[in-house]
Structures are given as structure tokens and as C-alpha cells.
Please model this.
Amino acid sequence: MWLRPEEVLLKSALKLWVTERSNRYFLLQRRRGYGEGGGGIAGLLVGTLDTVLDSTAKVAPYRILHQTPDSQVYWSIACGASLEEISQHWDWLQVNVMRTLSVFDSDDDITSFVQGKIRGLIAEEGKSSSGDDEDPERFREAMLRFERLFGLPKREKLVTYFSCSYWRGRVPNQGWIYLSTNFICFYSYLLGNEVKLVFSWDEVSRLERTSSVLLAESIRVCVHGEDHFFSMFLRLQQTYLLMQQLADYAITRLFDKETFSMDHPLSDPALEVHARNQAFRSFFRLPQEENLCEVYESFLWVPFNHYNTLGKICVSERYLCFASQDGSQCHLIVPLREVVSVELPDRSSRALSVGVRGTRAFRFSEVRDFERLAATIRRKCSASNFANCCHDWQLKERMKEQSWQIHFAEYGRGSGMFCTKKTRDLVVRGVPETLRGELWMLFSGAVNDMATHPGYYAALLDECMGSSSLACDEIERDLHRSLPEHPAFQTDTGISALRRVLTAYAHRNPKIGYCQAMNILTSVLLLYAKEEEAFWLLVAVCERMLPDYFNRRIIGALVDQAVFEELIRDHLTALTDHMTDLSFFSSVSLSWFLTLFISVLPIESAVNVVDCFFFDGIRAVLQLALAVLHYNMDSLLCCHDDAEAVTILNRFFDSVTNKDSPLPATVQQASAPANHKPAQSVDISDLIREAYERFGDIRWEEVESMRKRNKLYVIQTLEETTKQNVVIVAQDVKFSASQLEELYLLFKRQHFISCYWSVSSPSLQNHDPSLPYLDQYQLGQSQFSALFTLLLPWAPNTHSHSHSHSLTRSAFRLADENRDGLVNFREFICTLDNNMWVSCRMKLALKVNLRTYATINKVQCSYVCVCVCVCVCVLQNQFVRLSKTLYSVFHGDEEEESLYRAVARVTSLLLRMEEVGRRLQETSPTKSPQTSPQITPQTTPDPIQSTAGSDSAPTSLTPDPCSPTGGDSSPKSPPPDPDSSPSDTSPRSPTSPTSSATSSPTGTSSSALDTPVDSPGDPPAGGEDWSFSFEQILASLLNEPAVVRFFERTVDTQALIENARRNQIRDTH
Model:
């Protein structure tokens, strides 16, 4: 098939291709390992690399290259799976292209002609085969194979799959990579060697394209510090961009739980729509609800330069945008609410004229489908119902204002203004104070937000004024710290306006609420904009221009710090060579980014930085930060420590002045220490101009790409810090540090597994990244039970029994100390710690069991019985259920028969003791006949608490849905149907306890217990219930060596953790 022409450097091919045919302008090559003569060591290596387990091979064995005689660069123009297919392309080139090329005199013209011809062929093929590329049957087979190989739930959506090679050391494993909404998976099986990888997207810390001597291009995926390399993709860039989108969306969910409740944007077949809309909004700075609807290539008449510029028209729901071909020469944003007419003046040139308010019009020409575009604009204009907001600006006659007035007259003013290089030059020189608020609103896009939400701010104030919250308390604390030296904030008028704007935004966006540095930024906005405009400017900054900056983790700022470090390495190599650790610049520049230099520069100079920020976004801040370091390069290279570098930078910022400010330079500069010479003043306009001249080649697309690349690493670093903090807090248990880390990863994965496929999960509903690190990840009862069951040290067969579920429910109640229905990692690990170590295992088992049944019978026994105190008795149904639980736990053990006999002896002994006690009471002449002990509320010590250390019973209980007489019986060997014995589901008669001592919990005779060593005596006479004390039960069990051996076995904790890791996802369904 024909390929879009791409450059190929033959020297990097490492002789992996053999030339079969050639002429002056084309080469036909075969990949080694294919066709005749493909043997040899090189052929075997290449053949192994290209082996694919399906017919849809991703590496074509034949290709055609275009070349010119005097050039070292070749262009790949076609590929084929067979010699016949590629020969057809070769013959077509010989007949239709070779003769034509002889008429050209320049090699560049030949290359341009060939590239244009190939692109035309691809376009024609696309028209004829549109809609035929999708193969639902093949994708359905891939989905079934994906579910079978990796054991993921059917609710996990497969996005796409590719053939590739996974490199384990120096050996490639050819297989398939599967990309789903939550996981990245790989499977390979060659010659008995199976490779299976399953990683969650939120575990990926690095994702980037790399190249090496052996691998021309590959994708590097770093998970938990381990690198995994995938190569041999047919469309490497497309695969990388898709993986980047999936990872970016998954990492967002670590601090934004609302994304779980939304449909995954990449589960739709149109995978590029989400990324295209995001890039469209970011480039033109449009509201988040805007989506790119249509794109047209056209020319736009530029009246001030008197020529047509080529570019693209982008139409969304409420905006008509235009960007020149390179994106920097000219761009235009026209709100459809401003459009008053759409005309077709010249059909021969396919022209379109769009008139806006103010007797201005924009002329587009050579629009391929201009009639459709005109109809689209008319339809959207008629459907839009926006409030028109007209501003009557009164400008003072000053030099800057005159320059801007000339600019407005030539380039337009307001929403339809052309933003060009001249506009940037005026911004760099400084915006006049009377125009600053207007231009900030325009450049940031806040003017569109305010126009489309009339009355929103006033209604928001009515809702939030008078309310009390944590954000309001923090706002009140910081009000008088916001530009305290400025006269505007030394009166109640300025303080009240600042309070209203911050409170309204905290009410609008509770996810952010209020964070430090917002007060400083809002104070500057209020100096040059009206109160409502300042509110919408704050919305634009926090939600679009500086995303994720103003939250408790300041993730956005940390990401831009990483971008700043990367730019330092690229542009300030001398400083990079001198400084071994660039993290110093990240820490010292954090306030620069959070406050847009307002906290380090005099306010008269800082507003010029804000001007550039609203025009060019974060790119302007990065350029200025680089310029600051470059200006102080010589001084920084002579520094001996970080403190000296900080001093140099602080002195530099104090020396920055604004020559256009009415204040003299001596007032603008801070007083220098007595032992330092006053630094030479630097004008802010000159500094900004140098930043644009020296670092103006930094493109917006480059910054966004670096942001996405570093976002994964930054968030995973924060998650790693959270893990370390949690592990430190939980170090009072007996697990090693490495085991705690592995258990934390299991706990965290269980939390997110519960969020992946259930919007109503308690873990998701209570997920809040702003909580302390110990409570960020919590498990509900079902998630706790699933993970706790995987880590039980008893026989694995018990996991399928109903008593296992009862035990995990009871263990959850013990772990949930604050009774909120959720368990954090510390509570989980303490419960698991008691379960792992021999000194507490038996006591925990008894406590869990008795706790459940005491809850059920709380009508008959008080809270003291729940705590299992020394003088509290274990009632009949509780004792029977305890025996059943022990039978269930012992089932499948290698000493099963001995353990069953031990339980039989204990129950027989206890029943005899009860019978003797009852007879003594009946024959005593001084005591009246007595029934089973009546439990009254009292405060007595808990024997479990005294013997098991930290296992304290909580003060309240939630009723257990499991009835003490419900069909919870566990099978023995051989087990009958647990629900088939009606005798176990009815209340016990006086003779029932005797049979329970010599038979299985189901009431069926067991071969192991048909002839117990000690047969119990007759059951107590009468219809009274009977009971035992907890100490009697514990002491009797401790007298049985088999039981003691069972509970004192050493647990292989690492093996349990490995087992849980393998089966965690599979057991979720």
C-alpha cells in the first residue's frame, strides 16, 4: 500500500534490508529473513524480530524508497506484505512516474512532485475505502482473547491492540500489546516461552519515545522504577499518542474522583476527537464546553498587510476561529454572538464574508465547501442566545494609549481583534493601565465566559454570602496579607471586594476552594478590573491557563517546574554543567510560577509579567524565568552553595524597576543590605524583551508536550511520597518495610479496582485527594473482604466457604474503628498483622467469631457480652457457630482428622462441665434451681483485649445480617450440601449440643468423628439454654496440641502477597 512520505536514513537501518531492484529515483527493498536467500544469522535475527502470531503483521517485509542522486535522504513511499503486491506499485511507478521525472531540472522539484503524487494516491484510496477499514469481527476476537489471557472483568473496555516486540534484556518477545481504559497489557508465547504483563495506567511513571543502536525507535514504559521497552510498531507515533492520552486520563483520576463517574473519553472509536478538542480549546483559550465541530482550509484577507494568509477555519458551537498556517503569524477569534451577517460575495473564488458588530467584516476565500460553512455559521448564530455586553471605554491621551488606539484602528478591537506579532510587541512594552483590564479579559478568554453567563456572579454571591466553611476561614486569615502596602487594600472597600471574589470562587469550585497565592493574584486583578471581571479572570487562570495549580498538591506547578528543568538543560547548558542538581531551581522558582512573579517583583513591574502571561500563557513565564537565570549566569556559576544563589536572585529581583511607573526607581527598589553594593537597576520591559528575543523559539506545542510527559512522573513521585509516609506511620506492625510497601500497593490497587467498574462504590464516593495521606485511599466492606480473603494464612479452600465471608465481615467491623464504613491502610494492616503472627491468631479468630454472634443476640446479652468479658458467658448458638467456624477453617488441612477430633474432645469436655455444674446447682440445698445465666449490663475487662494486646472491641456494633441459625454450615470431608440439612437451620434443642460435638457442623456424621475418644455425657435435662465462659473455651483449645500447632504455624507472608498480586484482579469478578 502507498504510505505518506517519511524520511529514512539508510545508515540507521543496520543492513536489515536488501535491495532487490533500483533505478535512478526508486529502490525496491526486501527485509532480511523474508523470501529467497533470507537465511544466515542476520536473516534469522530479523525474522525472529518480525514474527507475529497473527496474519495482520505490523512490519511489512517489502518497501519502496524514493531517492535523488545527490541526496543522502530517502523517502519511504510504499510497503507490501508480498512480492506480488509491491511489484504492482513498482510497475505503476515505472509506467506513470519515471517518464515525467525527466522533465524536471531540480532534485527538490522531483521530490516535491513524487510526494504530491503519492499523497494524491492515498487521498483517492481513502475516498474509495472509507468505512471499510474497520473489522468488527476481528476486534471482537481480540476482545475475547484479551479477556481470556488477562482475566480482567468484561466491564473493562479494550480500546485497541497492536503487534509489537517486548524487549526483555537483549531478547525480543514478539506478541501483542492491548490498551484498555485502565490497563496496558502484553502477551507473547513463542517456543514455550510465555510473557504476560498487566500494568494499571495509574502505575506508569514514565512514558516516552526512545531510540538506541539496536532499536531504531521504541516506546519506554516505566512502572515502579522498572523500564519496559516496546518496539516494531507500524504506526509508532499514533500508538504513542494514544498511550499518552490513556495514561494522562488515568493519572488525572488520582486527584479528581469525578472522572470515574464520567464515560471514558477514549473508549469511543473516535480516539483522536478528545485530544483534538483539548488542543483546540487550549490554543484559542476557549471555555471547556467548546468542542471542535468543523475545520476548513482557506485564505483570510489581512487588511493591515494587504495580502491573503493561508490557514484553517475552526468552528465550534459558539466560536469561529482562524489560525494561520504556522500558528504564529496571525490568529483570530470571533464569537458567533457578534456575527450580524454571512454573505457569499464571489462564488468564483469561493469567498465568504462574515460581518460582525461595529461595521467590520472578515473575508475568507478559497474555501472548498464555502456554502456549507455559510449555512453552519447562520444556523449556529440563530441558535445562540447570548446576552450582549457593550463596554464604553474612555481612554486617556498618553503615548501607550495612542499606540494601542492605532492598533485597534488597524487590527480591530474586542473579540474580533487580530492578534499578531505587533500585538505581542505592544504587550511586551507594557499595557496602559486604562486598557489593562480590557485586554486581560480579551487575551484570557474571560470576556467570553462573562458574556455567556450574565448574572452568574451576582447569583453566586447571593448563595455563598453568610455561609461558613473551612475555605472561608482561610480566606479571612489571608485577607490582610494581600498587598498590604497598596492603598487599595488598606480600606474596607478593597478588602470586601477581595473577600467576595475569593468566597464566590470557592463556592463555584469546591474542588479547589481556596489555596494560598490566590489572594495575591486576585488582589492584582482587582487593581485593573471590575469585581465581576476579576472573578472571571480568576476562573480563567485557575481552570484553563494554570490547570491544577491551585489545589492542595499544586500538581500543575510541580509539572511546570519539571518543564522548567528540562528547558534549562536545553537552553542553559553552561548552568547545567555547573549544577549537578537542578531541583534547586525548581524549589526557588515555585513562587515565581504560583504568583506569576508578583511575590518577588515590585508590583509596578510584576503587572507587566501578568500582561505577557495573559497573552502568551505559561510560555511567557517560562521564557522570563530562563531570562532571569541567563541574566545572572556569571554570578550563579561562581556560587558555592544554594544560599548564595538565593541571595543573588533576591538582589536581582529587588533591582528590577519599571521606567514607565510614576514612582521613582529608588522607591520601587527594596533597600539593599548595608554590606552589599546596590545592584544596577534593570527595566522590566528590557528584561521581558530579552526573554522573547533569546527564548522566543519555545513553541506552545513543545510546552504542552513536555507538560504531558512530565505529568506522569510528577504525580507518581507524589504517590511514592504518600506511600513512604503511610509506611512510616504503619511501622508499629511486624511486617518488614518492603512487605509494607507491597501491601500498600495491593491496598491502593484494590481501592482503584473498586472505582474502575462501580460508580456507586463507597471508596469512590469518599475518595478525596485533599485528605491526609493516610485517608486518601480507603476500602469499603466488599473491597476489604476481597483483599483480606486473598491474604488469609489458612488453607485456600476456605476461601470458597460461606464462613470465610462471615469471618471477613466480622474482621471488617473490628478494623473499622471510627464506624464510618471504610477502612484505611493503617486499620487494615493492624488487622492483618494480628492475623499473620502466631501470638494473636487464635485470639483474633475467636474474637471475630464471637463478636459476630454477640451482635446478633444483643437482645439477650448486653454490650459486656459483646466484649466477651471474663464473667460473660458464650451462649448456646454462639458456641455452635464457633464450632462450625473452626471446622471450616480446619477443612482441607493436612491434619484435618486430628483437628476434627480435637474439636470433638473440646466440645465433649465443655458439655460435661456444663452438665456437672447444672447438677450441682440442682442438688444444692441452699440455692434455688437456676436456668442459664442471665447477663446484665456491667463494665468488666475484656479477656480478648487483655490477651491479644491491641485488639480492642469498639463501643458500638452494626447488626450482622447473618443469622446464628442460618445456613452457614461449612462442609467436612466428605462434605454434603451446606444448605441440605434442615436440622442446622432450626434452634438447638437440649440434645443438639451433644450431637454437635461428635458430628460435622452440618449435622451429618463424619468419618473422623464417629468414634471420638471422649464421648459426651447426656445433655442437660430440661429445655434451658446452656453457656460457657470465654476463658473455658480458650483454655480447652490450648490443651489440644493439634490446634496449637495449627495456629502456631509460620506464615510465609511473601508467598501470600505474591498470591494476592496474581489473583487480585481476577477475584474482583
